[in-house]
Amino acid sequence: MKPSIAVVRGKFLNRYEMQFFEPLVRDFRVTAFGSLFPYHNRFAFPVVKLPSPMDLPEFPYKMSILNRLFIDAHYLWGLEEKLKGPPAGRQGFDLVHTAETYYRYTQQCLDAKRKGYVRKVIATVLETIPHNNEGIHGRKQYKARARRELDHMIALTAKAKDALVEEGANPGKITVISHFIDTKRFTPGVKKRDPRAVTILFVGRLEEYKGIFDILEALTILRHDPDLSGTAIRAVFVGGGTEQARMTAFEQSHGLGSLVIHEHHAYDDMPDVYRGADIVVAPSKPRVVSRIGKRLTTWEEQYNTSLLEAQASGLAIITTKSGGIPENIGEAGILIAPGDTASLSRELKRLITDRPLRIRLGDLARKRAIRVHDIAIGAGKLTDLYRRILSE
Q1: Is residue 94 part of a domain?
Q2: What is the largest CA-CA distance in the chain?
Q3: pLDDT tens, position by position, 25-57
Q4: Enclosing domain of residue 362
Q5: DSSP string across 63-115
Q6: Based on the domain organization, do 258 and 381 belong to the same domain?
């Protein structure tokens, strides 16, 4: 019988990540565990849905309140019993694959292992900032317990592995396996008809730390550039977030209304969205707060799925040297400093006016996606790791 694998993701269960678990159904019996209302719920394997505080409607300071009530809000009621499997004396899942060392459901998975319900527990870790997320009482203990009791950890990037090691994790228990993309779904489109029309695409949350206002500032500069007077520039923002109203006000006050379009698309439609673009821009920057006279980085881009999709779609990319992004795109894009609006506008102008350069960078991106990020590569790495952990 095939080994049984539980993939626990709660509210964050989504098709972006699950696409590279789907090929595993050839070798394993995979079941996903989500909240009652996860991001997505249709996959090539069954989904068990459980109540979670994460499903509560949005309200002011929601995450701050929930994280202090629960230590971490990623809790799934009844998860341990569900991992135990059906009655008749059979042990539950052979391997449970959870996420992050401080998530509450990771602690639940470890509780299930202690009770003998499951054999092995591993976790994918995205966090790249050592000792981050330890300000809330109890999370430091959660992380320490996970480092001790997890059978293995998958670091999304080498930077995430370094953070784990700095926190005290055993390097021998860590394997770096990045995210992957279906390069047969995300493919390049037909090269542009009108060279004077250029579409710039942003895909992601409309939040300050994603660099959305840097894009608008750069567009304001480009709008007044006489060298671009004969070029029809269109900037498409796909996604929602807390800053959409402020973005709209900025666009209106700076005369960008005719340049900027806001859209929402189902994930099934995203390959066509990328095919309609010429340039993808992702100017993420660290989120920094001041505490007791110190400036602390509390978030940085851990990887960025849209950059994988852009590479597979054969698009020219401008992004930032932040978090795991350099490991994500390698040589297949233009890297600038976070928050450097002048460089962003300059590089955008260069790509807008140099079509051969756009095509060359897009070709590099597509080749990297196939060589490094293809879903078959990821499935092979996960299969090898699962088999090794189960044999120990």
Answers
A1: yes
A2: 76
A3: 999 999 999 999 999 989 999 999 999 999 999
A4: 197-373
A5: HHHHHHHHSSS---TTHHHHHT-SSSS----SEEEEE-SS-HHHHHHHHHHHT
A6: no
In this structure, the answer to whether residues 349 and 279 fall within a common structural domain is yes
For residues 366 and 386, membership in a common domain is answered with no
Q: Are residues 147 and 206 in the same domain?
A: no
pLDDT at res. 76: 98
Quick check: 300 pLDDT over 60?
yes
pTM of the model: 0.94
Q: In 10 A of CB 173, how many CB atoms? A: 14
Query: Which amino acid is located at 35 in the chain?
Result: S
Q: How far apart are CA 179 and CA 198, in angstroms?
A: 29
Could you tell me if 72 and 151 lie in one domain? Answer: yes
Q: Tokens at residue 216, please?
A: 């608008």
CA geometry: angle 208, 279, 298, nearest 5 deg? 25
The domain that contains 146 carries what CATH number?
3.40.50.2000
Q: What is the reported pLDDT for 245?
A: 95
Strands (E), the chain: 4-10, 29-35, 47-50, 95-99, 120-125, 152-155, 174-176, 197-203, 232-238, 260-263, 279-282, 287-291, 294-299, 316-320, 334-336
d(CA 176, CA 199) in angstroms, rounded, equals 35
The residue type found at 254 is H
pLDDT tens per residue, range 195-247 = 789 999 999 999 999 999 999 999 999 999 999 998 999 999 999 999 999 99
How far apart CA 138 and CA 68 sit, in angstroms, is: 9
Residue 124 and residue 148 share a domain: yes
d(C-alpha 244, C-alpha 250), whole Å:
10
Residue 185 lies in a domain: no
Closest by alpha carbon to 261, among 270, 269, 274, 251?
251
- What does DSSP say about strands 287-291 and 294-299: parallel, antiparallel, or unpaired? antiparallel
Residues 128 and 77 in one domain: yes
What residues are paired with 31 via a beta bridge? 6
Count of structural domains within the chain = 2
Same domain, 240 and 114: no
Q: Is the Cβ–Cβ distance between 17 and 376 less than 8 Å? A: no
What is the signed CA dihedral for 150, 391, 13, 26, rounded to 10 degrees? 180
